[in-house]
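lol ok so funny story. i was supposed to be doing the assay writeup but got distracted and ended up predicting the structure for this chain instead. priorities right. anyway since i did it might as well share w the group, maybe its usefull for someone
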Amino acid sequence: RFDEWIMRCKAAAESMADENRGPWDAAARETYIAFIEQYRASTALDDGPQALEAAWTLLDYKWMDTAMPLQLVHDIEDGYGDPLSVKATPDMSLRFLDETYAEANATIKEIQRHLEA
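and the output, tada:
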C-alpha cells in the first residue's frame, strides 16, 4: 500500500506539471516525493546498524528539504511498538506551516539551520 501511495503522489505531481508557483510548486512536490521514497526505503531496510543510521540520517535531511505548508513528519520515538524498546516504529504525523504556529515553525527552522551547518 505504501508503494501505491508513492505512485499516486508521483502521478499527482505529474498531472500538476504546469503548476509551478506557490507552495505546491514543482520543486516542493519533488522534495516531498523524495522524502516519502526515502521513508519507504528506510523502513524497509534490513541491514546493519551503520546502514540503518545512514538511511535514517538521509531521511532527516530529505525531510528538512521539504517546504510545503502541510508536511509529514516521521516520528522516531522508540518503545511504543517494540516491547524491548530497541526499534523505532514507523509513524507519521502532520505539521502545518502557517501563521498559527509561526513561533514553533521558526524554532524548528532554526534547529534545522544548526543541523545543516
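The first strand starts at residue 70 and ends at 74. Strands lie at 70-74, 92-96.
back to the writeup now i swear
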